[in-house]
Amino acid sequence: xxxxxxxxxxxxxxxxxxxxxxxxxxxxxxxxxxxxxxxxxxxxxxxxxxxxxxxxxxxxxxxxxxxxxxxxxxxxxxxxxxxxxxxxxx
Length: 90
Prior knowledge:
rod-shaped, disordered N terminus, mainly alpha, 5 helices, single chain
C-alpha cells in the first residue's frame, strides 16, 4: 500500500487518509496544500458567469446579424411613414 499511495493512480486514496507514510516522506505541508487546492472551488462560480455572459453576448451578436436587414427595413418604413404625416399646430 505504501508504494501504491506514492503513484499518481493512488493520489485520491492518499488524500482520503489522515496521514500516511507517503505524506511523511513527501512533506506534510506540501500534501496539506495539495489537498486544499484539490478541494477548493472558489473560482468555479466566476468561470460559470464568464462563460454564460460570453454565450449571451455571442447569441445577441448572432441574432442582430441574422435580423439586421429586417430591422433596417422596418426602421426605414417607419421613418418614411412618420415623415409623410402632417402635423398641424392650433
